[in-house]
Fold this sequence. Notes:
Layout: E1 2-7, H1 16-30, E2 34-40, E3 46-47, E4 50-55, E5 57-60, E6 63-69, H2 73-82, E7 86-90, H3 95-105, E8 110-113, H4 118-124, H5 130-142, E9 146-149, H6 152-160, E10 166-168, H7 185-192, E11 198-203, E12 224-229, H8 235-241, E13 246-249, H9 253-261, E14 265-267, H10 277-284, E15 289-292, H11 297-300, E16 308-310, H12 315-326, H13 329-342, H14 348-363, H15 368-372
Parallel strand pairs: 1-2, 1-7, 2-4, 7-8, 8-9, 9-10, 11-12, 11-14, 12-13, 14-15, 15-16
Antiparallel strand pairs: 3-4, 5-6
Amino acid sequence: MRVAIVTESFFPQVNGVTNTVRHTVDRLLQTGHEPVVIAPGPGAASYRNAPVVRVRSMALPRYTSFPIGLPDPVVERTLAQFRPDVVHLASPIALGAVGMRAALKLDLPTVAVYQTDIGGFVRQYGLRAEPAVARWVGRIHRRAGRTLAPSTASLMQLGRMGVPNLHRWGRGVSLDLFGPECRSDELRSHWTRGRDEVVVGYVGRLAAEKQVRRLAALADLPGVRLVVVGDGPERAALGRLLPRARFTGMLSGVDLARAYASLDVFVHTGEAETFCQTVQEAQASGVPVVAPAAGGPIDLVDHGRTGLLYAPGSDADLRQHVAHLVHDPENRRHLGEQGRTAVASRTWPAVVDQLIHEHYAAVRRPGLAAAAA
């Protein structure tokens, strides 16, 4: 099968969209399919054995590290030449809209994957554009052959936009990378400077939409050491707000797995997550999770069994849940073990195989690529 993936983000940018596309391409190649990636540039012209076609882009205002794809004839030209069996639109907003128009013009089947709550994003940046963004996103997805959303909350959100043919498609987690065995006493000692402290950490982008400033509610908890893993436009401001926290910068691979497993409690603060991959990665690492009862975490955390959910917007509730775990190591152990068990079957190969055999198959018209050859 030929699959053209039109994505709003790809390497060298590292985020949830890039990560999902990367794992999708990995599995497509592994199972004998032929993918091509169309992404905003600049960047490498290939990933493994898959070509990456770069299009014109511009920096997003107030978020200059994130390039936005611009209308570019290379998108339609690439689809016309490649003639895919399916066009996979990864988090379509800007470049995805261009890909959708080209696919419809060429009569190519489409699967649109909803992954970013742009409305929540603009709200956190104080922009008065949420209704217009919702109309734009809804229009793109209403034109897709099938829309995949990662959580119950996202399905409901898209349903309110009038998007038809909705299906839930989650995310995998790299169980071969993340695990309790990665825990490092040496790293913990570095963070705590040898003190007997409970390490409470956040992992993710340091940006307004992630609401990392909520960690200030935990900063003065006795016996707690805050650790912040990641980077982004709010790094300097968070450093001033949380002067006693340890900031590691962005980590990946083995270093990231070691950081996760060396936490005693993982806290997520953002309330506009369509899925929340970091929750799964913390659970895979055997670390108890505290997250808001909003968006993706509602599906990932069974309150009291695989983690704890706090009332959205309530710093007091967040503080109470974390304080409870700080003083209850047995419950930390129990929640960590149950969280690990909950994600044991969510491997990336299994998740991408579902995408190929269930969702691609549902929109694909047999013989399309062969007829064009």
